[in-house]
Automatic annotation (TrEMBL):
GO molecular function annotations of the record: 3-isopropylmalate dehydrogenase activity
Keyword entries, A-Z: Amino-acid biosynthesis, Branched-chain amino acid biosynthesis, Cytoplasm, Leucine biosynthesis, Magnesium, Manganese, Metal-binding, NAD, Oxidoreductase
Cofactor: Mn(2+); Mg(2+)
Function: Catalyzes the oxidation of 3-carboxy-2-hydroxy-4-methylpentanoate (3-isopropylmalate) to 3-carboxy-4-methyl-2-oxopentanoate. The product decarboxylates to 4-methyl-2 oxopentanoate.
Family matches, as Pfam families: Iso_dh
Limits of the Isopropylmalate dehydrogenase-like domain: 6-341
Similarity comment: Belongs to the isocitrate and isopropylmalate dehydrogenases family. LeuB type 2 subfamily.
Gene label: leuB
Organism, scientific name: Aeromicrobium duanguangcaii
Protein name: 3-isopropylmalate dehydrogenase
Coiled coil: none
Compartmental location: Cytoplasm
Amino acid sequence: MTSTYSLAVVAGDGIGPEVTDQALKVLDVVAEGAGLTFDRTAYDLGARRWHATGETLPDTVLEEIRGHDAILLGAVGDPSVPSGVLERGLLLRLRFELDHYVNLRPSKLFPGVPTPLADPGEIDFVVVREGTEGPYVGNGGAIRVGTPHEVATEVSLNTAFGVERVVRDAFARAQARPRRKLTLVHKNNVLVHAGHLWSRTVEAVGAEFPDVTVDYLHVDAATIFLATDPARFDVIVTDNLFGDILTDLAAAITGGIGLAASGNVNPDRTSPSMFEPVHGSAPDIAGQSKADPTAAILSAGLLLEHLGHAAEAQRITAAVEADIAARDGQPRSTQEVGEAIAERVAAEV
Ligand code: NAI
Ligand code: MG
């Protein structure tokens, strides 16, 4: 079977283009073996464009991107651009405009990966973070800025519709995994309004998934268990802010930011989903071929899975796993890591 997909590529800033090149290299090898074609359009968005034109994400470009089957993103953000301009104007705008309400972040401790935990156990869970609501919607403001009487608000927005759709997605994912366990993480003892909406929704939707075991943890307790007993987690569903924080901790215990992949998913497929490494543009190592492209490569795997090619996605994971197992601590360039993983994928065919 031959399938052709249109892929929008936003390599972005710093190490973004370096790691994206390697992800595309691996994607091409997998695609070739599976009879898939990815027609790529590269979009020049990020710091360079902002300096040249003042644009972050022009409406016309957004509409063009919307016409693709999927998006592969590197990273955006640069010290030469005021903080937040690209992150809000480009990255968050894409997530909101394309209705990426599921921010998917799998965490797996691959054999041979150093972890700061003395006794990690078997870590294999996925965080389903709500992506379009919570405190990240920009529902706030400030007055008397810079005076002792400054007032600043950042209101967390939670809708029954928004909570239900992400909870439903998390239950479906839990049901498809061997352990069939879902943990809601919130702070419903203090944030009672949003927290009770989340709890009631999990209870109601859970009735439709009787074979999924449901657990609840306050977010502070969740950080304890992520450090002391991460093996207890299977699927975690949580709000935008808690999910942002928990997934950095999850990345830290499973080998660090160079391995953490993510998907900004629109499960209804009304617009393209976007796959990207969790890390940023790493200006401190940009242009030195030092970046680990593994997170970007695993993100390409998530992209394949989203498009319905689970076996091909698994080939990327297997190649990464084998590459990691063979690592001996000798430094390799970004290209060398990408090449090694691409060769392993090719050899699997
Ligand atoms: P960062 O993730 O770019 O870097 C944090 C540290 O991790 C740095 O020491 C960096 O060298 C290292 N690192 C990151 N990725 C790596 C990789 N693949 N291999 C090896 N080392 C790696 O986060 P930071 O420094 O807070 O942010 C830098 C810029 O990136 C900022 O402008 C920030 O806003 C932006 N950013 C963008 C994101 C995105 O595009 N999704 C996510 C996070 C930050
Ligand atoms: Mg983050």
